[in-house]
Amino acid sequence: MFFEHPQNQGEYPNFPGPGPDPELDPAPPPGEKPKRPDLPNPGEPQAPRRVQGQRKENMQALKELGTSALPEIKSNIHCLTIVGQIEGHLVLPPQNKTTKYEHLLPQLVALEQSPEIEGVLVVLNTVGGDVEAGLAIAEMIAGLSKPTVSIVLGGGHSIGVPVAVSARYSFITQTASMTIHPIRLNGLIIGVPQTWEYLEKMQDRVVRFVVQHSRISEAAFREMMFRSGELARDIGTVLIGKEAVECGLIDEVGSVGQAVKKLQEMIAGRKQNSGQPA
Predict the structure, then answer these.
(1) Domain map of the chain by residue range?
(2) 166 is catalytic
(3) Is 214 among the catalytic positions?
(4) Options 78, 150, 158, 214, the catalytic residue
């Protein structure tokens, strides 16, 4: 057997290479094509191939959210969403889109303690829900020491009104609406005078909170709450966009861009007052 010296490589271009080893590469049976190790065997199950050039996270985002990639940014603002119906002590049906207050309360405690989060943006599109759960969320937002801005998108109805005004500054879009109406109960009600007194006390809690955290007067808010003739089969008032600002319930008409800009200004002002670099 001859071996080509490395110095003589290329000197004999037609020099034959080593042939197949009959012990390692046995000859195929007559009439059968030889197997190629670089090609998959059609009889064996193959692993699913992934599209080249796409990360697994991008493909998952495309499947779940309909977008090829999500922007990854490090922000000092946390977005807190309150959508659907605010769920209280009773679990709502599975077809209802809900915001569970036992999920939001620990988040708010964590936001208060987190040094990386300097501001909270509260986004609302809710039909209302449990009164005590909504007031609990509103009190927690109002008690945060960090700047908070709320924005009503779509709707901030019923107990969503106290949540919307709980932030230090509030926005509402042009087409968003807010329904103001008295507290209502469904299900079994004990028909005793104490039941009416309890409802009246709950009503006063909502009215006091809204008046303390907005520019609307108590008389104007109660008049909207018990106004008749505007809502079919019910009493109350529906405010749309600019109307909520004109009565003093919401601070300004605007969308996400204005809300984020206002929150950044509040964060910069807080740093300036405390002597921190902006």
Answers:
(1) 77-87+96-274
(2) no
(3) no
(4) 158
